[in-house]
Amino acid sequence: MRMNNIKAVVVTGCDSGIGYGICSALLRKNYFVIAGCYTKQGIKKVKKLYKSVFSSGDVSSYPSNRSDSTKDSMDIVNNHESDNLDHIIGQKKDDTGNLNEHLNSINTKRNVYRMGNRGMIMRLDVTSEESVKELSSLVKELIDTKQIPSLYSLINNSGIWRFSSLKECWNGDKLIESEVEEELERWKLVMETNLMGSVRVSLRLLPFLARYEGFARIIFITSVVDETGVPGQSSYVSSKFALRGFHESLMHELEGTNIATVTVAPGALSDTCLFDYDFKLNKEYRLNDTHRLKNGMKILKKLGSSSKGVVKTVLKALESKRPRRYYRSTSGTFLFKLMKLFPKSLYIKIAKLILLNFEHIYTSLPLLTKLIRLVLK
């Protein structure tokens, strides 16, 4: 494959769930993937993914005939299971497209791994300005050394979720200071990751997207709750509202350029790790309704759909000549769309009623549970 035909895509949050699924799909579609992972475990997981995709023959390498030295280099990289991430293995490509195996000594503290000739993995913390600068430097380096012509797309997928009930912060007419401080810390972390993380990465990579000879695109993985709230996740909902606002602002700012900005809004998903931290957290709550609400959220996740539908929608946004600005037809969104048809006051009452009683519905009313499962799919 000629270098001008290479489509390079940066994906953040590839450790698990949607990001991992996107990374897997893009490899099989012959994209050059720059995968950002936050954890060492995530990096190992994506390394194994690269190896399995290459060995399965699902991906054609470029150049089309890989040399033995290239294959050996790929195997060395993928078999490297050290927890020491201060290590780079790279391959440079000359102007004819041939790969020359070598150890890349550009910056041995960058935490970057070269996976054959199909992409890179780097340790990325979107809340860190230095980490995002390293990502920007990596993309620039790949362009300057003609390993990719420019950047085709950025997929802002990194995100976290935190459960809370704001009513835990006061008792009668008195604030509970410890709960207020804990809630504010949750908000800071969620906003720094979900909103500011996407802002940081987008601003740093926009110049490389502008250099693409064609129609580049920024894709934001938002949520079905980016335009309608639900109880128990105020910080997450607010971050997704804000992320949609950033997307809409970019639509205006980038009008007349070659860059489109797109949102993909998943619904309830059963195979995401997004909720794991809070669901495993053994926190005691003052209010019984808070316990019921959290248990209801657990059931909602259990009844959710697969992230495969979200990945397909992302691919559609990537491969359409003129992608839509909003993709709301992903799996798990139907129930939320249905609820939006009700007056807001009625929607609030229904959402609270369902979530507070979800555990009872799930264990005692199988027919209703089956119906809810169907509309969540």
TrEMBL record:
GO biological process, any: steroid metabolic process
Disordered: region residues: 56-77
Molecular functions (GO terms): oxidoreductase activity
Gene3D superfamilies: NAD(P)-binding Rossmann-like Domain
Compositional bias annotation for Basic and acidic residues: 68-77
UniProt feature, compositional bias: Polar residues: 56-67
PANTHER family linked to this entry: 3BETA-HYDROXYSTEROID DEHYDROGENASE DHS-16 (PTHR43313:SF1), SHORT-CHAIN DEHYDROGENASE/REDUCTASE FAMILY 9C (PTHR43313)
Protein name in the entry: 3-oxoacyl-[acyl-carrier protein] reductase, putative
